[in-house]
Amino acid sequence: MSEKLWSEVDDYFAETLIPSDPALDAALANSEAAGLPSIAVTPHQGKLLNLLARMSGAKSVLEVGTLGGYSTIWLARALGEGGRVVTLEADPKHAEVARANIDAAGLGKIVDVRLGRAIDTLPSVEGPFDLVFIDADKPSNAAYFEWALRLTKPGAVIVVDNVVRAGRVIDADSGDAAVEGSRRVTELVAAEPRVDATALQTVGAKGYDGFIVALVTS
Ligand code: SAH
Ligand code: DHB
Ligand code: MG
Asked: Is the overall model pTM greater than 0.90, yes or no?
């Protein structure tokens, strides 16, 4: 089984289930033109975030790690009347590109892009949020998950991206800070009585990775 096949299957499902969308396409094109790394979620994952937000009736979303605003747009579009998104980004260029993309998508009024290292901006973020998407620097995942718990109530959904790292998550001695971050957040989630969670592996156009989905239960 090859990455080529995974990509072809991703293409099939994207072409069949996820109509191309001018604002999302433009967000990716502008991000690439501005030299941002091509590490946004796939359309399939973006749509899953959108569906999770709609399934849970989310009205407010916190995102950690904006990049060019691609996942932000998927999430913001899921919120009904009175929706609100706060998205945290450390890189000024990424934040600038994201703001332009979000404005062009017509979502500038409901999305607040906050520039700064998330660990510095989180203390001034006001919750509660109905859904939190954690997708920034992987070594900080456990710290972000703790913030997500502080900023949510029972019924909220927390998603942590990129926890599989091509399978390296099972290597307790990897010495890789991102892998250690995945393991720490997984163990934190397991030990946390306030959440119930699972992790799913994914293959596709972006290789082999996966994510945690948690429900805040109490
Ligand atoms: N969620 C985006 C992808 C985010 S990529 C999408 O799917 O479309 C990760 C982003 O996190 C990058 O833009 C990077 O600059 C940002 N980042 C890295 N370290 C950070 C930190 N300490 N605080 C906030 N953002 C950070
Ligand atoms: C990387 C970060 C991501 O958020 C992602 O989805 C894929 C890769 C990275 O830093 O390599
Ligand atoms: Mg990611």
From this structure: yes
